[in-house]
Amino acid sequence: MFTRLRPPSRAEKGALNQLYAAVQPQARSGQFIGPDGRNESKGYPTLVQPAESAKNLDTARRLWDLSERLTGVRYGLPD
Q: Do you know which Gene3D superfamilies this protein is assigned to (predicted)?
């Protein structure tokens, strides 16, 4: 008897990068995991290079501050 595997649903496939990052022993903090397809728009999880804008510390700080302000949650992280 043959079993036909169904392709993953869009939601299941969309979660693959996060699942990979969470359970893959080789994944390390600070790495970016994304699809291996053309322009990283679809495909299976792999290590990818972040866009230059994702490395901007000033933007990261502003986003963090805004997130704290909008949610009302403070984490007291060091500057």
A: NAD(P)-binding Rossmann-like Domain
Nearest Cα to 32, choosing from 16, 51, 14, 57?
Answer: 51
Structure tokens at 64: 């963090």
Q: How far apart are CA 37 and CA 18, in angstroms?
A: 16
pLDDT at 76: 77
The alpha-helical segments, DSSP class H, found in 1-79 are 10-14, 16-23, 57-71
Contact (Cβ atoms closer than 8 angstroms) between residue 36 and residue 8: no
Kindly state the tokens that stand for 19: 């699942």
The rounded average pLDDT for each run of 10 residues, N- to C-terminus, in the chain (79 residues) is 59 85 90 88 89 90 94 82
Alpha-carbon distances, residue 25 vs 2, 42, 56, 64 (angstroms): 32, 23, 27, 28
Its pTM stands at: 0.61
